[in-house]
Every structure is written in structure tokens, then in C-alpha cells.
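Late entry, NAP complex.
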Amino acid sequence: MILGVILGVILGLIFCGKEIPLRDAHNTAREHRSVTVLGSTGSIGCNTLDLIARSPDRFKVEALTANANVAVLAEQARAVRPAFVAVADERAYGALRERLAGTGIEVAAGPKAVVEAAERPAEWVGASIVGAAGLQPTLAAIRRGAVVALANKETLVCAGDLVMAEVARSGATLLPVDSEHSAIFQVFDFAQRDRIEKIILTASGGPFRCHDRAAMAHITPAEAVAHPNWRMGAKISVDSATMMNKGLEIIEAHHLFALPETRIDVLVHPQSVIHSMVAYVDGSVLAQMGSPDMRTPLAFALGWPSRIPAPAPRLDLAAIATLTFEAPDPERFPALRLARQALQTGGAAPTILNAANEVAVGRFLAGEIGFLDIAESVARTLEALDPVPLGSLEEVMAVDAEARRTASAIPRGRLHAKKRGPEGTPDFLNGDGKAGPWMG
Ligand SMILES: NC(=O)c1ccc[n+]([C@@H]2O[C@H](COP(=O)([O-])OP(=O)(O)OC[C@H]3O[C@@H](n4cnc5c(N)ncnc54)[C@H](OP(=O)(O)O)[C@@H]3O)[C@@H](O)[C@H]2O)c1
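Prediction complete; structure with ligand written out below:
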């Protein structure tokens, strides 16, 4: 048993140094793993708690957090009895306290309280807050050396170098939850990383895979959040529809697997059965498959380094019969190209891309801008701001805030304004009146 725990610690240290997660490392997880779920009321958070509820003897919940969804958070807290719950929105504090009166559960509110939840001594932390709001709490868990199951890809997009440096410094273990990155992690031979030619991220193509650009102009928020294969939160559903989600995942994969952008391919696979692949120098391509249910990659991360049961529908390949693949179309889905260019540019570019995208998706969901305006708005924000080098969290936060201000200030009517010559050059275009390098 003691040997097992020691092996587990060694494995954690090895993986955090991006080396070899040994495959014979079964059964080293502790009997009662203490867990904290950041963003427990969201789609990923609820799936995590569903798995925990199915193995109550295996897990003990330390803390749960939400933004403002007091009803679901209180219900979850009454069910799993954490020591601590926090809401980011201070206005929700009174209602949460009232709902948990008499339970003995400590209640707190505000962004600092969410960070405090991450700092509490849970061995495993599910980072499932949506957007850059997850950065500081996720970093707090990483800084104290926790096992962090990362769903919150925006954390790596907006501050990837900083986050990976903290992982290396603290000895934290970062486990991917995104189904694509979980798939790659499962078939990536860390002992022979020099024998890996490339990784291939699969993409469903989203609900508008077959739409032409003209039809995309009329897409409504309700249509955009209705993903054909996955049930997810609103923001990631819109990201999937624009394919910005795949762009964010390219940046996430670059940081997790230490590969350059040129060795990260994207392949559209509408059935979402193959979750991603790794191609080796001998021509072998290893894939991980499963039905599209986030409880499978979540169970992989929750049980790691051992496997625990998950109730996802079992794959019936005979019933599916046909798996299809196609190349992504960067003309109809320019977000993919924007993300690649941001990664190539480096510095603040991915931070700007992420913040501008969060603002644009919010504006689209609010009915303020159209579907095609999302990528356009991101492109214009990238054109407007310098991709300065980022050396600290404060610098990341400052760029994030500036990009949000810039993206929010782009008037709706200007997004598809006809491009004019230098005299009447719109604010967000280059001086020569052409779109900047961002739109290719
Ligand atoms: N859903 C999926 O299948 C899936 C798959 C792969 C990766 N991911 C990634 O996982 C993350 C979560 O996605 P999701 O679909 O679960 O999102 P979601 O359903 O919208 O849930 C988001 C969670 O974050 C909380 N939250 C929102 N704003 C916050 C803030 N400012 N401060 C603190 N907490 C805040 C929400 O609380 P309230 O409920 O109170 O608003 C909720 O608990 C995203 O980064 C996404 O890209 C999701």
C-alpha cells in the first residue's frame, strides 16, 4: 500500500514534467479521494458529481463552486456534504446561506472565495469553470500541487506558458478532460515522444458543418447551442458551431503535449466516435474511441491512474456501421485559422483571441451580433492590439481586460462594413484598408 502511494507520487511528478505516465500504475489511487469541483453546476460539473454519486465510497467532496446558480449548488451540497461552498457572484451569498442553513457547510462568496475553494486541501480538483474566469482558481489548485482535471481549456489558451511553468514548479498533475485531449493522453507514448509525427484532433463539425456562408448569416443562438452529438454549456456549444472550440483545443494541445502548431492536425469526424489520434513515424495511427459522453473522459481523470466505471452508452460499432471523415473548411470556419495564427504569433495573441471570443459569443447569445460576426469580431480585436510578450499573471489579466474592452466596443454595424481605402479606413482595419493578417 505504502509502495503504491509512493509510486503514485512519483508518477505525478513524472507526468507533471511532461514525461512518462507509466501504464502499469493501476490501483494507486487512494481509497477515499478528496475532491473539489470548481464550476459544479455546469455541464461538466454535473457530470463529475454524477460519477461521484455512483461511487460514494471512493470520493469525499471538499468544496463546490458556482457563479450564481444557488438552487443547483445548494441541492448538490445537500447531497454530497462538502465542507465549503462558494459562489463567485456576491449577490447570491444570502440566498445560498439561507438554503444551506443548519447543514454546517461553510458558505462564502466572491471571486476570492472561489480561489479559496481551490486552495483547500483536496487531492483532486475538477477545473470546470467556463472561460478565463477559471484561470485564477485553476492556478491556485496547481500552485499547491493538486491533481487538476482540466476541462477549462480557456485557462491554457489565455495563459498556457504561465500555467505549464507553474505545473512544473509545483509538481501538480494536469489531466486533460476535453475528450480529444483525454484520447490523445491515452494513446500518446510519452516514452517515445520523438517517434510521434503528429496528433490529430477530431471535430464533429458542429451543427452547421454543411451550411454555406450565406445560410450561416441567419443562424440564431437557439440553433447554435443545439449541438448534434454533445450536450454542453452555451459557450462551448457556440464555440463548437464556429469551430473556435477546435482552435482553442489546438492551443490547449500545444501546451499539454508540447507540440508545435504544425504537428497538430484537425479532422472533421461527424459521428464523434474517434475522439482523437496520434500518428507515429512507422505509419501507425492510434485512436481512442467511445460514445460521445463526457463521463468517459471524466471517469478517466477522476480515477487516474486507475480506471473507474462510467455509465456512458457502450459503443456499438456494428450499429453505427459507418465512420466518416473530411477536412475542415477554413473559409466557412475562419475561427480555426485565427486560432492557428494566434498560436504562431505567440505572446499575448492567444490571450486576446480568447477574451475577444468570450465577448463575441456573449454578444451573439444576447442577440447583439450575428453568428458570422463572432470570428470577425475576434479578427478585428487581434488586429487592434499588439501581441506583447506576457511574463506574469498581472500582464495576462491586463491584456485580457483590454481585449474585452476592445471587442465590446466594436459596433455591431461595423463588423461587416465594406472595406474602404485609407481615407475612410474603419477603426479596426489596417491602414491600407485590407483586413489584417488575421483573416488570411
Ligand atoms: N460541456 C462539455 O461537454 C465540455 C467538454 C469539454 C470541455 N468543456 C470545457 O469545460 C468548461 C465548462 O464547460 P461547461 O459546458 O460545463 O460550462 P457551463 O455548463 O456553462 O458551466 C460553467 C460553470 O462555471 C461557472 N461559472 C460561470 N462563470 C463563472 C465565474 N465568473 N466565476 C466562477 N464560476 C463561473 C458556472 O456557474 P453557474 O451555473 O452559477 O453559472 C458553472 O458552474 C469550459 O471551459 C468548456 O470549454 C466542456
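The longest strand covers residues 59-66. Will revisit in the morning.
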